[in-house]
Amino acid sequence: MNCPGKSRYPKSPIRWISAGVVCLSLLIPHVSHSQVLISLVFGDMLNSSKVEFGLDGGLSLSDLQGLPVSKARPAFNLGFYFDIKLRDTAWMFHTGVMVKSSFGARNIPVYSLHDPELDAEFSNGSVTRKLGYFNVPFMMKYRFTRRFFAEAGPMVSLLNKGVDEFVASIADDDDLIHTVKVKKQYHPLDFGLIGGLGYRLMKGHGLNLGVRYYFGLTDIETDDSHPDVFNRSFYAYVGLPIGVSAKKKKSAQN
Fold first, then answer.
1. CB 3.0 to 4.6 Å from 194: which of 44, 56, 123, 155, for a disulfide?
2. Contacts of 7 (CB under 8 A, 6+ apart)
3. Distance between CA atoms of residues 226 and 164, nearest Å
4. Which residues lie below 8 Å from residue 218, measured CB to CB, with a gap of 6+?
C-alpha cells in the first residue's frame, strides 16, 4: 500500500493559489467547448424566460469544526444549477447538484495504523481527510440590481467518499502516501445552511461570480463518544449559463 512518488499537494497557500490559477486557465478552453455542445443538446430544453440552467464550479476552502488540530483544505468543485424566477419579481429559487464537492481538512495529526512499520514511516507526517459529497442547495436568491444579488437557504449533502491520506516527506520533492477508507465513520447525510453574495457580468446576462459560506448543523461522525464535528466551507465560484443567449435571441426574433 505504500506508494512513494512526487507530492500531489502544494506545500503552501501561495502554491495552492498558483496551482488553482493554472488549472482554471487550462479548464477554460474545455469549458467553452463543453458549453457549445451542451447548448446544442440541452440549451433550448432547459432554459426559458423563467428558468436558467448552467454549470457551477470553482474553489473551496473547507474545515472540520470540532477537530482539536487541523487546517483548512483547498479543493475544486463542479456541478450544475437552475435559477427559477418567481413571477415578475427580483426573487428567484436557486437549486441544482454539486456533483463534485469536497469537504475535509488537512494537517491532522497521524494516528496508529496498527502496523509498526507504517506507524514508524508516518510518525512525522500528517493526515489529509477528504470527504466527498453530492450537494443539493435550496436557496432563495434576490437581485438588488441587474448585476448584484444575494442568496441563502438550506443545503442537503449525500456522502459518496471518505478517505484519510497519510502523507510523509521523504525528500524535498517526494512524499510517501498511504490511503485509509473512513467513509463508514461518517453519517451518509449532512444538513446545514449556505449563503453568499454574487455579481453578474454583461449587464446581468453573463457569468455569475460569487462567494458562499456553508455552515453545517449536524454532527457528521457516527461515533458519539467523540466531540461533535461539523462541516464548514468557503466557496469562490463561477456560474456559467448554458444556452441562455440562444434562447433570448430566439425570443427576440419571435
1. 155
2. 167, 169, 173, 174, 175
3. 18
4. 187, 189, 190, 191, 192, 230
42 DSSP 8-state letter: I
Closest CA to 170 of 121, 128, 126, 116: 121
Do the beta carbons of residue 187 and residue 159 sit within 8 Å? Answer: yes
For the record, the C-alpha cell of 219 comes out as 454532527
pTM, to two decimals: 0.78
Name all domains of the chain by residue range, CATH numbers in brackets: 5-253 (2.40.160.20)
What's the CA angle centered on 40, arms 38 and 44, to 5 degrees?
95
Residue for cell digits 483548512? 72
- Confidence (pLDDT) at 203: 72
SS3 state at 190: strand
Mean pLDDT by 10 residues, the chain (254 residues): 41 45 44 45 66 91 93 93 89 93 94 92 93 96 93 97 92 83 96 97 83 97 91 95 58 44
DSSP secondary structure, 153-175, as one string? EEEEEEEEEEEEEEEEESSSSEE
Residues in the chain: 254
d(CA 213, CA 79): 16
Count other C-beta atoms under 10 Å from residue 79's C-beta: 18
